[in-house]
Structures are given as C-alpha cells and as structure tokens.
C-alpha cells in the first residue's frame, strides 16, 4: 500500500485534473440527454422555449460547477510542486 500511496501523492495534480475532466464529461453527457428528453416534451407541450433554455443553462452550470473544486485543487498542487522544484533547484546550485 505504501507504493500506491507514494504514487498517488506524486501524481496528485494529474489525478485531480483527470477527475475534473471526467466530471465535466459526465455532466455534458447528462445535459445532452436531458436536452434531448426535454426537446421531446417541448414539442408536445408547446411551452415557451425561452423558459426551458434558461432552465437548461442553469442545469449545465450546476453540473459543471462540480468539477471546479478538483480542477482548482489540481492547479494549487501543480503550482506548489513547481515552486518547490524551483526552490530545490536553486538551493542545489549554491
């Protein structure tokens, strides 16, 4: 388990970025499915399209917002890793 833990810690930013991409992809697929289902209902009920477009826009923003936290975490970890590597490279040259 120790080797797996070290690998995860070494690649934490990449893992979080992949999780964010998967969440965005899942949200887009879900949104497209919802849009297709709603399109069938809109044509049969005759509801105003403007109300449904706002609802769909809010739905996609809500779905994609879930990916923001892991993406932000990946950015923070990447910046910290780069800063640490630069500091270590500067100390090694002195």
Q: What would you note in describing this structure?
A:
The chain is mostly helical and 94 residues long. The protein is 90% helix and 0% strand. It has four helices and no strands. The protein is elongated. The two termini are 37 Å apart.
Question: What's the helix-strand series?
Answer: HHHH
- Strand share of the residues? under 5%
Shape estimate: elongated
The helix tally amounts to 4
Q: How many beta-strand elements?
A: 0
Helicity level, as a percent range? Answer: over 70%
Unreliable parts? none
Query: Number of folding domains?
Result: 1
Our measurement of the CA-to-CA distance between the termini, rounded to an integer number of angstroms, reads: 37 Å
Provide the gyration radius in Å: 21 Å
- The overall pLDDT, averaged over residues, is 81
* Largest sheet composition: none
Q: In terms of structural class, how would the helical and strand content be classed?
A: mainly alpha
Keywords:
single chain, 94 residues, 4 helices, mainly alpha
List the helices and strands and how they pair.
Blueprint: H1 2-10, H2 12-45, H3 49-65, H4 68-92
Helix pairs in contact: 2-3, 2-4
Short description, anyone?
It is built from four helices and no strands. With about 90 residues, the protein is mainly alpha-helical. It has one domain (about 10-90).
